[in-house]
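Section 3.1 - Work completed
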Amino acid sequence: RVNQRFCIATSTKVDLKGADYGSVSDAYFARSASKKKTKKDESGFFATEAEKTGISEEKKAGQKKMDEPMVKGLSADHKAYLKARFSLSAKMYPHELKF
């Protein structure tokens, strides 16, 4: 899921047939429960390393499994289009663009 501010509407269609998205639900996107904040003390204030958690290996493998059938159906132009960085310059209005 992506915030709508970061989405640009296009007329490009991508075929999703052959991919199994049955395992994806709201729980898939939920964040893990974080520790409750405790009273601040000197040891917490001067802690040098913050505990960072990345995406689990299980989710990475699941994402690759879901993406593989979809990517096989894309042409080279579509792959380049989806990988390209998008930005607007002066006098470019998103509602007037046609992709």
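Second construct:
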Amino acid sequence: NTASHSRADCMCPGGMYGVGGNYSNGGSCADCPEGMSCAFGSHELFGSSDVHVEALTFPRVREGFMTLASQALSPYRCLVEAWCPGGDTAVCSSHRDNTKVAFGARLPGH
């Protein structure tokens, strides 16, 4: 039984993200959801406003997909790829309603 000598040894590789507890407290790795990008060290806890670890990240949304703020790890393919620039959770192009699945609804007055 060998102990890790580096915090990086306890993080999920690219293409996966951490789930459950933190890396040193029983967390595990899961495959990155389709429509998302998971860099080395990505973890579901890093989407929480009370958890911040320098240089680590929450899984990112790929261009052409979107997530709702309430379901940040459940991406939807957008009706029109240009409406969904990707990046952060619940981000959409101008005049699109980021509370609607796949940003199909235009904001009132647009």
